[in-house]
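so i finally got all the pieces together for this one. its two components total, 807 residues if u count the protein bits. some of the lines might not be protein, just check the labels. i wanna see the whole assembly predicted at once instead of chain by chain like last time, that was a mess tbh
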Amino acid sequence: FSSFHTKGKDTIIFVTKEDHAAPSSAELVEEDPNDPYEERGLILPSGEINWNCPCLGGMASGPCGTAFKDAFSCFHYSKEEVKGSECMDQFRSMQECMQRFPELYPQEDDKVQQEKSETHEASQSSETAEMSGTDSAPAEDSNTTQCVVHGFLLPVS
Amino acid sequence: MLKCRTVWKKLAPLARSSSTVCRQNVRRAVLNNGRTPAQVPAAHMSTGPAGGGRENQLYALLVGAACLGGGIYAYRTVKGDQRRYEERLSEIASRPHRAAPQETLSEPEPLAAEAAETEVPAPEPEPQAEPSPEEPSPPAPEAEVVAPSETTEIPPGGDVAPVASKIPSHARYLLIGGGTASFAAARSIRARDPGARVLIVTDEPDLPYMRPPLSKELWFSDDPSVTETLRFKQWNGKERSIYFQPPSFYINPEELNSAENGGVAVLTGKKVVHMDVRGNKVKLDDDTEIAYDKCLIATGGVPRNLQVIERAGEEVMSKTTLFRKIEDFKLLDKVSRNIKSVTIIGGGFLGSELACALGRRSAESDLEVIQMFPEKGNMGKVLPEYLSNWTTEKVKKEGVKIISEALVKSVVAKDDKLEILLKDGRLVKTDHIVAAVGLEPNVDLAKSAGLEVDSDFGGYRVNAELQARSNIWVAGDAACFYDIRLGRRRVEHHDHAVVSGRLAGENMTGASKPYWHQSMFWSDLGPDVGYEAIGIVDSSLPTVGVFAKATAKDTPKAATEKSGTGIRSESETEDTAVSPVASSTPAPPTVGHKDDYGKGVIFYLRDKVVVGIILWNVFNRMPIARKIIKDGEEHADLNEVAKLFNIHED
């Protein structure tokens, strides 16, 4: 223990790396996976899509929100061998919608996926305004989202 | 009001008892007089028998006079208090009204010379003149006589509209206020209610934007046109605008109710002045009425001013900035380039951030930056004293002259400068003042709507689900809400606006969820101090700070210097030991001073439970901090809890 002193009501402790090497003995309350109040990631415990996930940015709420929801829902519930293969119509109408708003959905062909992920990150970080990532759960989901979003954007572009 | 009541309560029994005494004495006197009718039958009307009777009556007269005097005093005190209270209320009410006319007037004002350009009401193709990439194409959200005095050349929102734009008479979701909370709610509603029609009404001329960059990133931008583009670089290097979405995201208010898939419309330059809760409708400042199904009040607040400045006259007021909005940023940026000295009054988040931003600018120019506040150090109400002092030294290194324990007595305009006289006699001469002394939550609608206002924290009082009444929710700076874990509070941070706006939006679409996900906040003061915080972070609470014993690697700057582990030992037992490893490093270690709070975690305790945490120069650990607050457990050894944060890692 390196140093411990108090200044009135405030306690100040300096610790070295070695001091903190041993695992913590602090006990944390176990998480309830079905807690109705908790913020959820992209997929809710029920299996439904959480359209309000910060990871989606403005995708579900913008002018093409409905088209996006239709396409993504179709993809999500698709049981085909090539997931989402029966959803081409929805993807097409979503693409058409997005082309009408190039500002919101940048359409440069090579950069579509990259830009999307950046828009997601940017919207996420702007919406939650944290330095990086929000909760651990949604953060993981956001990675999956990007994979998923990339995934179902690939056949379209 | 409470004072009146207490005064009255105190005086009432006194009055009552003295009146009882009066009455008893009078009765006694009369009875005494009455007992001597035999002696002087007709004389009981007069002073009665000499001696005893007269004394009694004199006594009765004196007591009566005292009662009367007491009664008059009590009456005057109560009346005076009531008068003072009403004066205060009307003063508060007049403040936003004073601000409002500046925004909604269509005549050019002497304030902003640029106003002349924006006054053209004709539907010019303004957007084309604008350098910003956020060009609206046809769907430009508009406001009729919008963009008056305080906006500069071209509002990037591109909100000049065809003169006749109709306001919908009904909106399913009506959001009053166009800030962060409102936008977060709009997004939440649209996500959960497919095809939702959301109308945002704001008295500002701008589309919803985020506030933190106005006192941080925008000042550090290398782009000289930053005041026009309002773009900044994020932590990940990517650039973005402070506007949440470009104008094409929104639809025209008049198209709102006919759009197939709904949308979000923003009505700028309109102020809601009256709310009819029974009739479910609001009235705007131009007498238009809008009926709603669900309503969110997210009116934020107005910067407070010092009374001494308000009373100091026009010239002083014209050289004072109350910093909150985009136009304040633009004005301060311009002014700071043309003056020699600026003084920031206020030592909290905003004041300190602006001081650091201007301080950094002073390195290139010869601008004198002064910051004054009543506390002993920067963030004195947030950080424990030792850390506040340490931070103040860092702020000084950013080029700021700190005047602490400063109470402003008066401000006068003299010889084209401002003279600030402090209560302890110190005199400060400066060219411009920035007042960052707090926010007054905007509760203008409370009266007409019959909504409760919280007397402790200010703001509209709402429950844990942010609801004020059926169909009315409040979010953001203006909401005094019940936090299940931490109790009733009102929070004025950006992330809270986002979290509460989202929650309100969820509840407006039927979620019935309480405030549960704890919001956080952050601040950066120069290259050495950056922290994230969560929960109740009040310096009056007992704190436990666990800091990493500084190695030279820990400060961002020292990444370039490789002085290894030459740390001067700090513990008592090694007091006399010679610094062992230092011999290998020729230069003295840059860090390693005993009081170097390079990085660590600080716990704020209330009844032994952690209610607030600051992550001091450690990042990406907010989820753990959030979990600890949520658990609300008593931890015997906070050093063990601190281990969870791995403060020695990057």
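Residues 34-51, 98-164, 555-593 of chain B have pLDDT under 50 and may be disordered.
The CA atoms of residues 401 and 427 of chain B lie 14 Å apart.
anyway lmk what u think
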